[in-house]
Amino acid sequence: MAASLTPRVLVTASRGNVGRELVPALQARGVFVVGGLRHVAKDANTYFDFEDLDSVRKCISTNSINTVFLIYPESLREPAAQKVHEVLKQEGVTRVIGMAGYIQPLDMLKEAGFTEYSAIAPNWFMQNYNQMYKVCIRDQSCFAEQAADIKTPFIDCRDIADVAVALLTAPSGDFMSSYHGRNFDLTGPDAIDRHEVARVFSSVLGRQVTYKPLEREEYIDFMSRPENGGMGKEEAAAIADVYNSIGEEWTVTKTDNVQKILGRKPRDLADFVHHYADDWKQK
């Protein structure tokens, strides 16, 4: 992307944990941004479905998009992702930032031949606690996870969004020298276990919050109870599978990439709980 080219950005999954922080962060910078969504009318100019290549093509062309932040759906497999990359390239997109999760996009972005590309790989979201654990913390003053005493360097999605803004809007010369072709593992400032998470919640909220370490079947049962949010058993089982990365300690290592990119330390858990305290306010 030439330095003089003004970014016109598409953010996929714009109502998810990262997207809902990233879209307003870009808007605050005066950047033209479209929030791509799958669950909207198919004739909307924001309709974007990875499994519907016509929707990808229309969303890019209708909005004159040249820069894309791709949050890949959990169900998406690499061949389907590669087809989306091909359409983006055909439609003139020059810069793509992929967010790794179930798919590791960096090599695929390279193969697609984008002029400028990089990837970010965030660790465990702090926002899990005001999303899937919101009800049990608010109403039961407890949360349960399949994580034993393992430490995790949780990251605030606001920091993920701030990093994404930096990558999406960097002038071409700066991007090529600092970010192009690289994957950035993103973590918070501290690796802490869930007992410490409970202590932070207790301190900030002013009431005792406890952590219950559970095994897989216990966790699925806990999460499916109505008083804990009433998650469906299939969804709870899928989340239990994600905890394999915790159990095998894949998510333990913290990095300084947020500091390097933003020039400041990432937010800690206490900041997160203070910011979203109303989400756990008891009725």
- What is the share of helical residues? 40-55%
Counting helices, strands and paired strands, the structural category is alpha/beta
Percent strand: 5-15%
- Topology order in helix (H) and strand (E) letters: EHEHEHEHEHEHHEHEHHHHH
What does the main sheet amount to?
6 strands, parallel
Total of helices: 13
Net shape: globular
Q: Which value, in Å, is the CA radius of gyration?
A: 19 Å
Distance between the termini: 51 Å
Spatial arrangement of strands, main beta sheet: 2-1-3-4-5-7
Point out poorly predicted stretches: none
Total beta strand runs: 8
Quote the average pLDDT.
94
Topology:
Elements: E1 8-11, H1 19-28, E2 32-35, H2 53-62, E3 67-71, H3 78-90, E4 95-99, H4 106-112, E5 116-122, H5 134-140, E6 142-145, H6 157-169, H7 172-178, E7 183-186, H8 194-205, E8 210-213, H9 216-224, H10 233-242, H11 244-247, H12 257-262, H13 269-275
Parallel strand pairs: 1-2, 1-3, 3-4, 4-5, 5-7, 6-8
Give an overview in words.
Helices cover 41% and strands 13% of the residues. It has 283 residues and is an alpha/beta fold. It is globular and about 55 Å long.
